[in-house]
Amino acid sequence: MKKRTALFAVFAVFLLLLSGCALFKRTDMARSTPEGLYQRGLEDYQDGHYKKAVEAFQRVKDEHPLSEVAILAELGIGDSYFSNEQYAEAELAYSDFLSLHPANENLPYVIYQLGMCHYKQIGSIDRDQTETVRAKKEFERLVARFPSSKFSFMAEKMIQECRRMLGEKEFYIAHIYYKLKRYGAALRRFEVVAKDYAGLGLDYKVNFFLAETKKRLIEQEASKDKEGYRGINRPYDYLF
User: How far apart are CA 183 and CA 189, in angstroms?
Assistant: First the structure.
């Protein structure tokens, strides 16, 4: 009787192990499907494991390119890079999406993200503002192509922000000329800011420095004229 009980216990454990292996196989198979891989990438993304998310999304794209979730995986790659502050890689992923899916319904979002990739790389106003120009260009492209999209509404605000930063850059350069007493060059720069970047929060200080620069320029020219007059050699100067 004891022998039978022992054999039954061993058999039960064996069945349990078999069922466990089968469960693991089913789970692994489910995770290997395009939907399973995508879900894994989504979970990694939500947990902040962006590198792992990219790997899972990339597997969907490479192994199941015709799957319904492949397009979502491509977006996931771009979003994972973006959230991980790898903006150059994100830009490339979003650009590839635009090239591969020129009529996809997610284009407004993708173009907006392209603009944000550039915006996130903008440096301080004493640095080159190429990224600001590129961001502004992408946001303007979005508004022009999809004016009724909710992302276009967001892009319009970003365009204004980019314009403000470009105006700040012009003001920064103008102020440097002003401090160097190169008032002619400063005046031209201040006039550009007043004309091209009005209504962006720069008006008060620009108008102040426009007036001050014009005043200093007049004084500077008057001083030059006075110095020039003093420097004229009169015929009788040698007598004194």
Answer: 10
